[in-house]
Amino acid sequence: MPSSQGKSLMAQLLKEYDKATKPSGGILDVQAEVTIQDISSISEISSSFIVDLWFSQIWADPRLAYSHLSCKSNLSLDESLVQKIWTPNLCFTNSQNTYIHSSPESNILLIIYSNGTVWLNHRIRVQGRCTMGDGFANFPLDTQSCFLVLESCGYPIAEVRLSWLNWNPVSVASEKLQLPDFRFVNLTYTRLLRRYNAGAFDQLKINFEFKRLYGYYVVQE
């Protein structure tokens, strides 16, 4: 929970704050960071996989700068404050299902730095898509690919430019991700541009590669 000093400071900053208005009059840069916590399953039936991850969005909102009001370098705030500020509304556009972990409270962390930098972090579970590319022609010696796609659900590139964090933007918390019938082989990430009728949008894509553990099927037989 934020301290009474933090609450008082935020109340002052939000007094004339309009959450419906983007921080910058021009194009706003938003960075993203993802840390993979666990991959619990891969389903050939639904062509999907389930991944638990920490997901951060970072941007600058000069309206929330408070270096002139306090000597505190940052404020750690609870999820109730997220509803009161502008956010870039990033979402996983290829997800079949997504929810925020709660243990017991929602796993959301909001940090606002004295210069107005906003760091919003969610711990979530995502059911993403897998390509199952070779049609299982090499089963059980096949390799399968799954992916996640991040995009702003409300702002085209004319308003928001989305990019990966400059350092270590996508990482894996554990060196050994345990799956019963697949071995995690590789992870890559890239930035793409997707055009819709509504305009062009930045996309951040994470690709996961898995090698099937054929010994699992030998044992099952």
Automatic annotation (TrEMBL):
One of its GO terms (molecular function) is transmembrane signaling receptor activity. GO terms for cellular component: membrane. SUPFAM superfamilies: Nicotinic receptor ligand binding domain-like. Coiled coil: none annotated. Pfam families: Neur_chan_LBD. Residues 8-212 form the Neurotransmitter-gated ion-channel ligand-binding domain. This is Neurotransmitter-gated ion-channel ligand-binding domain-containing protein. It comes from Meloidogyne incognita.
